Amino acid sequence: MASALTKCIVLTAEPRDRPYELRDAQVSGLILRVQPSGHKAWIVTWAHGKRRTLGSVEHLTLDQARDQARQTVAEYVQSGLPALSKSKLTSCTLSVLNEYFEPWAVAELKGGLQYPDRSRSVFPWLLRR
Q1: 2-85 CATH fold
Q2: pLDDT (tens digit, 0 to 9) for every residue of the chain, 129 residues total?
Q3: Which terminus of the chain, N or C, has less C-beta within 10 A?
């Protein structure tokens, strides 16, 4: 059930033994989630099962969360997929992966140094891709 969230309600929402959510009646799709640890976060939902965290209460005010929720729902209505849900492409090369893999392999695998060395010697043309 939705209720009009106010700054007072946000600040005084007490943690319980299980996480719970308070839905905003003013902006459809805006949710305040309160964890048992006391952490409070803003969540926006735009379709059944489609949701993303906007940020914590410490970083976003109620008005900022409402603005972001309105924008996300409007993007969903206009284009079918809000920008918040689109994954960001990252460029990663094999040599960058080796930088992360090598310390782990040395610490966790028997003869761990041979694996990054092998990938560098067997696939030298792939190191920059």
Answers
A1: Double Stranded RNA Binding Domain (3.30.160)
A2: 677 888 898 889 999 999 999 999 998 889 999 999 999 999 998 888 888 889 999 999 999 999 999 988 888 888 777 766 555 556 777 777 778 888 888 888 888 888 888 888 888 887 777
A3: N
Residue 63 to residue 69: CA distance in whole angstroms? 10
- Strand runs (DSSP E) across 1-129, as ranges? 2-3, 20-24, 30-34, 40-47, 50-56
Secondary structure letter of residue 125 according to DSSP: G
The predicted model scores a pTM of 0.62
The pair of structure tokens assigned to 43 is 């969540």
